[in-house]
């Protein structure tokens, strides 16, 4: 179970407990299920964290983004570096032993030393998991309409290489393009996405992927809370994936994983024969982007570094 946002950490522990009980009343939830809640350091309450833990939340994902006050301000974040540190301390005191920190690099006017400083300050807090990813400029945002000065490709590459080496030396395993974990602390819900698993959409703006007898479908829910409440049972943007969709979407997810996936998983999750990937696989192998044996498909280090180029080989468009 993943409770994202928005800012779900504005809810009380009692409210989250009510939500989880409602889920358990309707679905069979495994006793060892990973149950994650996203938390904003600027909306953290010590009583809430203790309440979340008591309600059954066993993993927190805290959106730190940066430990540099200037960068946080440029990103429009409402918290300070000290509030981020306090959030982790509060979570630890509340009993959480599985905490993810979200960090970004490639921030406006950031240099490699500042990016490394963010990582160093994050590791001082000893999180079990780090999501460390490059800033992307999304449509309909302030940065999209007024692009800030961001590091060039050479600096981004330097940040990435130095950061990966730093995290490796510190004992964090890079198991996905932007995910690093202590041993045994990989994110269960993200691994489900990346292995093309199914998931339900509950709540405003949520997205779903489901395998049905007639094929794989995707749908979403109304994004605006008022519209969602008025049409809470309705699926919107419902579509069934074509064979071309399945091939590309499976590879888009699976090739993010450092160890790739079992060849048999492609057939299990798509219902297609792996032979339909042969042309793309052969081209990727020739370019040194992909390894394949009888059991696994795995991106090479170059394949992970040039993931877009690898995926284009599986795009039928």
TrEMBL record:
Subcellular location: Cytoplasm
A GO BP entry: porphyrin-containing compound biosynthetic process
Ranges for domain Radical SAM core: 1-176
GO CC term, one of those recorded: cytoplasm
Keywords: 4Fe-4S, Chaperone, Cytoplasm, Heme, Iron, Iron-sulfur, Metal-binding, S-adenosyl-L-methionine
SMART domains referenced in this protein's UniProt entry, alphabetically: Elp3
PROSITE patterns (alphabetical): RADICAL_SAM
InterPro entries linked to this entry: Coproporphyrinogen-III_oxidase, Elp3/MiaA/NifB-like_rSAM, HemN_C, HemW-like, rSAM, rSAM_sf
One GO MF term attached to the UniProt entry: 4 iron, 4 sulfur cluster binding
Record Pfam families: HemN_C, Radical_SAM
Role summary: Probably acts as a heme chaperone, transferring heme to an unknown acceptor. Binds one molecule of heme per monomer, possibly covalently. Binds 1 [4Fe-4S] cluster. The cluster is coordinated with 3 cysteines and an exchangeable S-adenosyl-L-methionine.
Record-stated family: Belongs to the anaerobic coproporphyrinogen-III oxidase family. HemW subfamily.
The name this protein goes by in its record: Heme chaperone HemW
Species annotation: Thiolapillus brandeum
Taxonomic path: Bacteria, Pseudomonadati, Pseudomonadota, Gammaproteobacteria, Chromatiales
């Amino acid at each position: 179970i993943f409770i994202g946002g928005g800012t779900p950490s504005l809810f009380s522990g009692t409210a989250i407990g009510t939500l989880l009980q409602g889920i358990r009343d309707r679905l069979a939830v495994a006793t060892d299920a990973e149950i994650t809640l996203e938390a904003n350091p600027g909306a953290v309450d010590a009583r809430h964290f203790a309440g979340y833990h008591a309600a059954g939340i066993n993993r927190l994902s805290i959106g730190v983004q940066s430990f540099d006050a200037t960068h946080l301000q440029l990103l429009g974040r409402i918290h300070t570096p000290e509030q981020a540190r306090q959030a982790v301390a509060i979570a630890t005191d509340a009993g959480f032993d599985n905490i993810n920190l979200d960090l970004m690099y490639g921030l406006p006017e950031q240099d490699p030393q500042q990016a490394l400083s963010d990582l160093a300050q994050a590791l001082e807090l000893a999180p079990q998991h780090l999501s460390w990813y490059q800033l992307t400029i999304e449509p309909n945002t302030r940065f999209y309409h007024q692009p800030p000065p961001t590091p060039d490709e050479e600096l981004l590459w330097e940040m990435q290489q130095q950061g990966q080496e730093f995290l490796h030396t510190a004992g964090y395993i890079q198991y996905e393009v932007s995910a690093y974990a202590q041993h045994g602390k990989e994110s269960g819900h993200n691994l489900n996405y990346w292995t093309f698993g199914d998931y339900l959409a509950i709540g405003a703006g949520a997205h779903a992927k489901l395998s049905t007898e007639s094929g794989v479908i995707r749908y979403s829910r109304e994004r605006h809370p008022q519209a969602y409440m008025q049409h809470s049972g309705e699926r919107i943007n419902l579509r069934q994936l074509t064979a071309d969709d399945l091939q590309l979407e499976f590879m888009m997810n699976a090739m993010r994983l450092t160890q790739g996936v079992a060849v048999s998983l492609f057939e299990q999750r798509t219902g297609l024969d792996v032979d339909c990937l042969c042309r793309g696989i052969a081209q990727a192998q020739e370019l040194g982007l992909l390894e394949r044996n009888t059991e696994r498909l795995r991106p090479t280090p170059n394949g992970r570094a040039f993931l877009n180029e690898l995926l284009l080989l599986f795009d039928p468009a």
